[in-house]
Amino acid sequence: MRTKIDKGFYKWGEIVIRFRYPFVIGFLLLVIFFASQIPKLTFNTSNESFFKKDNPTLIAYNEFKEQFGRDDVIIVMVESENLFTLENLSKIKKLHNEIEDTVPLVNDINSLANARVTRGEEGALIVNDLLEEMPETPEEVAKLKEYVLAHPVYRNFIISEDGKLTIFAVETDAFSALDADGNAIAAEGTGFAETLNSGPPAKRATITDKENTAIVFAVKELIAKYSSPDFKLYYSGTPVVTTYLKGAMKKDMGRFTLMAIGAIAIFLFILFQRFTGVILPLLTVIFSVIITLGTMSLSNTPITVVIQILPSFLLAVGIGASVHMMSMFYVDFRKDQGNKFQAIKDTLAHSGMPIAMTSLTTAAGLASFSAAEIAPIGDLGFFAAYGVMVCLFLTVTFIPAVLAVGFSRSLKIYDHPDRTSFVDRALQGFGHVGTKKPGLVLIVFLLILAFTITGLPQLKLAHNILKWFPAESSIRMDTEKLDARMKGAASLEVIVDTGKENGNYDPAILNGLAQLETFATTELLRDGEPFVGKTNSLATMIKEINQALNENKKEHYIIPDNNNLISQEFLLFENSGSDDLENVTDSQFRKSRLTAKTEWIDSNSYRDQIVLLQKKADEIFEGLADVSITGTVVLFAQTITIMINSMISSYIIAGVVIAIMMILLLGNLKTGLNLLPIAFTLGFMGWVGIPLDMFTLLIGSIAIGLAVDDTIHFFHNFRKYYEESHSAQIAVEKTLQTAGRAMLVTTLVLITGFMLFTRASMNNMINFGLLTSLTMLLAFLADVLLAPALLTLMTRKGGKL
User: Fold this and answer.
1) 164 inside domain
2) Which of 306, 523, 560, 615 could be bridged to 565 by S-S, CB 3.0 to 4.6 A?
């Protein structure tokens, strides 16, 4: 079978040479077309982007947004040592109004300016905004401060316990205002044109990443405008975090792509010192990136937090095939005495199969992610595998076609055999150690394996986007400040569905909500501390109304025990002009919402708390209502679950597919050689405390595909030379003389390409780059040290491969 494949590649070379001009022109036109699509690429950094559209968790969350709006609000924080002054209160009201008037797509704002004041006067219910009438004297300001700090609803909701920090909770529309062409935004950061889509929510798309960015930029401008030494402003919230994330992605993508191209060019020049040896491999990988990104644009696939690594990843990964192609071409060109047509055919016959197999195994490792439940990882798996296959096709078609068209003068000036003697001597040194001292090499690698095994149990899963940012970044510090001062920057949403109209008038339902609030804030503990810092529900509102209608007496801060009385009190509240009820119940009073604020922590820590809260809610409302929990916290928590499933399935798929390919190519199973570096990296992560997150999760399947590439080239050449010499030592020497240099250069390119990620703005990218580089280094050492040692031991008594 291998002989037939080699002959097939030889014939393919004849076809490429015959149609070299159509091939070159066709590829150039194709690249121009796909390049024209790249400007249409979009970004998506929302929490929802982690899920596929048919995911039940996402469907439930979208239904919640349709009913109650967004739970992931923008939080503007105002900090002052003396917040309650006439000047500062005036600023708060003015800022509230300006947010309302100038920030696009604002659905609601909660702040001191419009904090609800509910009171009864002569049997009537009066609902006003806190700063509807501004205090005019220091005495009135002092009285206002006392009232605010004593009010249980305000505390840790819009004002901190020490009274020195207050927030504006800015809720934007949950659905997009863009028309079909996306023209509603005048310019990023400068605001929106009028809303063009006013259809029902069910027919509208969720708010876009572009709109979200424009909203955040508008808020940022107001913060800069109002901030002063005694009136410090900060902002946070999921929309702000995702906007900062997108900014870091855009910055890093362009920078890494250029750095990767530069690094690859340097290594190619060191290896070949020829124009063709530099320009053709570079064009091949650049064209593959252009075609891949263009295809993403045509398929409306956005750039996400995971896919941002794709361009520089393809540049580093794709270069290996073209390096092996050019290395063997120069050897064959010299052997064929300058006959480039014959050299092209001989090169394809010799290297076509291992190049194709390495590309296929790499693509298999990447494609194993295609079925991942995390949508961005699935997209990365598909398009990275697609890009690798595009690069393979360009390598065996575009490079031979261009070589056949021209570059004759450049090709004739070939390197001297001793030009890279240091590299050759180093490679031969590795080979000699492996063949002369196989037992020692095996013992060293077994010790490494033992180290790995002890570190694996300490490996932990984690997903916390906030920790991706450096500790000194403003968005992380501001979010942590919000967590500490306001008892939480994230929220859980509990939906209670009574299943009948006016079901929320039932005292049992309202008392159940109150009971669940108490449980959440006092009994739901994490590390001995309350997991929930603040709650709000329909139960809180009815207590407030009942107290106001009973001469504002504290003893009446209770839930009435009569359905009709509850109905009347809610009716009075609605007639007062307040629209706050729509935030906690639907128009039919069938469903109600309980919001529980919690800190922004590792999503793995949310899972157990959500289970406990769900269990308690089911117990309280058994036979009364159906209860479900949703919100951004649930999205975070669900990410961990699908990460585990993705990791297990992708590793199994990649391992099985690559094992089958190795058997077909080499006639034996050699994949264990490539699993050792991956196991070591995972063990190392356990020892140093680096968790498995959405990025380090990728290392295993990516490394399985990449590490096997050099193994294939090594075993392919070793088998050929061993069959000629029947000597493991001679076969290893010849293998390292022919394929060794290309193996070294491709490894250096991969290590450098992944090490570039250590210059990223985000911690997750730094860890990914460092650990993948470490894995590639260990894989190379396994190929040039452990492989010769094992093969020497296997063939010592004339054993067969």
Assistant:
1) yes
2) 560
Residue 651 and residue 624 in one domain: no
Helix (H/G/I), strand (E/B), else coil: 549: coil
Beta strand segments in 675-727, E? none
Q: Cβ distance 768 to 698 under 8 Å?
A: yes
In sequence order, what are the beta bridge partners of 236?
75
Whole-number pLDDT of residue 244? 87
Neighbours of 377 (CB within 10 A): 27
Q: What is the DSSP string of 458-516?
A: G--B---HHHHS-TT-HHHHHHHHHHHHHT-SEEEEEEEE-SSTTGGG-HHHHHHHHHH
User: Beta strand pairing status for 232-236 and 165-172?
Assistant: unpaired
Which phi and psi angles does 396 have, rounded to 5°? -90, 0
Q: Inter-axis angle of helices 2-18 and 375-405, to 10 degrees?
A: 60
* Residue 575 CB-density burial (10 A; 0-12 exposed, 13-18 middle, 19+ buried): exposed
Angle, alpha carbons 53-705-734 (nearest 5°): 165
Is residue 773 a contact partner of residue 671, using CB atoms and an 8 Å limit? no
Residues constituting the chain: 801
Which residue in the block uniquely carries the two structure tokens 């694996």? 456
φ, ψ of residue 44 to 5 degrees: the values are: -145, 110
Inter-CA distances, 752 with 507, 704, 763, Å: 66, 18, 18
* Co-location of 108 and 178 in the same domain: yes
Least confident of 551-555, 632-636, 672-676: 672-676
**∠291-297-301 over CA atoms, to 5°?**
115
The domain boundary residue, chosen from 242, 267, 289: 242
| pTM for the model | 0.78
Angle at 727 between CA 722 and CA 733, to 5 degrees: 80
> Do the Cβ atoms of 143 and 593 come closer than 8 Å?
no
Query: 262 with 390, same domain?
Result: yes
Beta partners for residue 121, in sequence order? 124
How far is the C-alpha of 234 from the C-alpha of 16, rounded, in Å? 62
3-state DSSP assignment of residue 461: strand
Last residue of a domain, one of 194, 212, 242: 242
Let me know whether 673 and 704 are in one domain: yes
Looking at the fold, whether 727 and 757 belong to one and the same domain comes out as yes
Structure tokens at 694: 């959405």
Q: Is position 530 within any domain?
A: yes
Residues 214 and 280 in one domain: no
Measured CA to CA, the distance from residue 677 to residue 694 in angstroms comes to 20
Cα–Cα distance for residue pair 783/799, rounded to 1 Å:
20
Q: What angle do CA 285, 291, 294 make, to 5 degrees?
A: 140
The answer to the question of residue 91 being in a domain is: yes
Q: Which residue range is the domain that position 36 belongs to?
A: 2-46+252-465+643-795
DSSP 8-class letter at 491: E
Predicted confidence (pLDDT) per residue in 175-221, tens digit: 777 654 555 444 333 344 443 334 444 445 778 878 888 899 999 99
Half-sphere exposure of residue 262: CA atoms within 13 angstroms, side-chain side = 7
What are the counts of helices (DSSP H) followed by strands (DSSP E) for the chain?
A: 27, 12
> Could you tell me where the DSSP H helices lie in 273-374?
275-298, 310-335, 340-367
Who's near 155: CB < 8 A, 6+ residues apart? 149, 161, 534
Q: Are 352 and 9 in contact (CB under 8 A)?
A: yes
DSSP-assigned letter for residue 586: -
Q: What is the CA radius of gyration of the chain?
A: 32
Quick check: is 185 in a domain?
yes
Q: What pLDDT digit, counting tens, does each position of 759-787 carry?
A: 888 888 888 888 888 888 888 888 888 88
Distance CA(776)–CA(779), nearest Å, equals 5
Do 396 and 510 lie in one domain? The reply is: no
User: What do you get for the CA distance between the two ends of the chain, in Å?
Assistant: 17
Q: Which CATH number fits the domain that encloses residue 749?
A: 1.20.1640.10
Cβ neighbours around 169 below 10 Å, total? 16
Q: Provide mean pLDDT across the span 568-583.
A: 88
Contact 134, 93 (CB under 8 A): yes
What's the structural domain count of the chain? 3
